[in-house]
């Protein structure tokens, strides 16, 4: 089986954390940890994972066109997108989450990415072009291309693969609110990235996000119930689909500013369990991300009706501070965040991203987080995130070398 520690949900936030580390280092880097190089390599990783017809400006020159008939067995065009990990499978759920977070990093911190910003934007578009294909038919979302079992039993380059390219979808009779909700979130977040860069494309993304969200909300259910044999145990939804509905609504609110999404969020906060498992954030659990994202509105002083989300975000921050005992979050002797379960790096990197994002929001509002007798300042959150990124910079370089050199 392909090593899931190298999968998008694990690798991708390393891009975010590495890029955001530039915030912490306003002067030229003369140190052991070259965050600019880590950022470059992290984005380059996406080019090594591209599927389909490669563009002339492809920087990973030894990668060639592959999977040019994806979707043909179902009568649709599903070429493009990204392969997952060392797999040749295209898993829609983690790919969409990857896209959402990459878009978020560009929205909040693109100005700190320097010359890599254009490559980060291209990485988003490579995914959204595919997600548009996967959602082209109303009431249907194509969520996976490739049979994971046959793929994982044959370790080969995508250019040479001869394994099954089975197509899997969700529809009205076979719902998947989790993957559809995440896809809607990705399209909505990306619409913000392209709002000034390509207005027509931005409108297309937002309109599609609205349609996919309506489908996800109307036909509720977990995609791992509809497609258990295909997606489990690889990206089986353990956490439920409720968080993805709120997550998508939050991004649609941010992208469209429509009152309907604000009302949806407020109305469904308790029903869809916004306050659950707030100390976790990843492809299967969006709760901490929901609360941090929405809290920006409160900290800017224009959304008091979202105050409970800020309280949840504050609780998230307090739950992961070193020295505060919490059963779900621990630290290694070297200071690395540790959460029980597989692929620990996905937790470290995604939580580090949220620390930096929330630190930025708090700083602009001149606020700190009260944690009992302690107070978590924006500077403290940046310091904690920087420590995680410093440790991860070595891991990122190592795993990128292993994956891209396979």
From TrEMBL:
Signal sequence residues: 1-31
Entry keyword set: Carbohydrate metabolism, Cellulose degradation, Glycosidase, Hydrolase, Membrane, Polysaccharide degradation, Signal, Transmembrane, Transmembrane helix
Pfam families cross-referenced by the UniProt entry: Glyco_hydro_9
GO MF term set: cellulase activity
GO biological process, one term: cellulose catabolic process
SUPFAM superfamilies xref list: Six-hairpin glycosidases
Annotated Glycoside hydrolase family domain residues: 35-390
Domain of life: Eukaryota
Catalytic activity: Endohydrolysis of (1->4)-beta-D-glucosidic linkages in cellulose, lichenin and cereal beta-D-glucans
Keyword Membrane: yes
PANTHER family for the chain: ENDO-1,4-BETA-GLUCANASE
Family designation: Belongs to the glycosyl hydrolase 9 (cellulase E) family.
Protein name, entry field: cellulase
């Amino acid at each position: 089986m392909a090593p899931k520690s190298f999968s998008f949900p694990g690798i991708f936030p390393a891009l975010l954390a590495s890029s955001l580390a530039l915030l912490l280092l306003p002067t030229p880097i003369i140190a052991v940890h070259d965050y600019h190089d880590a950022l470059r390599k992290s984005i380059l990783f996406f080019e090594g994972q591209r599927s389909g017809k490669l563009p002339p400006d492809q920087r990973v020159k030894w990668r060639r066109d592959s999977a040019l008939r994806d979707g043909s067995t179902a009568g649709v065009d599903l070429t493009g997108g990204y392969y997952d990990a060392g797999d040749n499978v295209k898993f829609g759920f983690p790919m969409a989450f990857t896209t959402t977070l990459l878009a978020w990093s560009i929205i909040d911190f693109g100005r700190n990415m320097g010359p890599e910003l254009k490559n980060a934007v291209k990485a988003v578009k490579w995914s959204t072009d595919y997600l548009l294909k996967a959602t082209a038919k109303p009431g249907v979302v194509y969520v996976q291309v490739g049979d994971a079992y046959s793929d994982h039993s044959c370790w080969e380059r995508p250019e040479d693969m001869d394994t099954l390219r089975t197509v899997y979808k969700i529809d009205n009779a076979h719902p998947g609110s989790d993957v559809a909700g995440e896809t809607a979130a990705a399209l909505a977040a990306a619409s913000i990235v392209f709002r000034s860069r390509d207005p027509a494309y931005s409108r297309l993304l937002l309109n599609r996000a609205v349609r996919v969200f309506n489908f996800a909300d109307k036909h509720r259910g977990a995609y791992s119930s509809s497609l258990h044999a295909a997606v489990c145990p690889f990206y089986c939804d353990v956490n439920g689909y409720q968080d993805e509905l709120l997550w998508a609504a939050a991004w649609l609110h941010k992208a469209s500013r429509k009152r309907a999404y604000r009302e949806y969020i407020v109305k469904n906060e308790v029903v869809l369990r916004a306050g659950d498992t707030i100390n976790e954030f990843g492809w299967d659990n969006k709760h901490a991300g929901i609360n941090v994202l929405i809290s920006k509105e409160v900290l800017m002083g224009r959304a008091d009706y979202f105050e409970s989300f800020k309280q949840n975000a504050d609780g998230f921050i307090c739950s992961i501070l070193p020295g505060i005992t919490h059963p779900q979050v621990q630290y290694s002797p070297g200071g690395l965040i540790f959460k029980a379960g597989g692929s620990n790096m996905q937790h470290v990197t995604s939580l580090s991203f949220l620390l930096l994002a929330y630190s930025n929001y708090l700083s602009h509002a001149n606020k700190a987080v009260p944690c009992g007798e302690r107070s978590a300042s924006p500077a403290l959150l940046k310091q904690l995130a920087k420590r995680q990124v410093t440790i991860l910079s070595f891991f990122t370089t190592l795993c990128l070398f292993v994956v891209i050199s396979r």
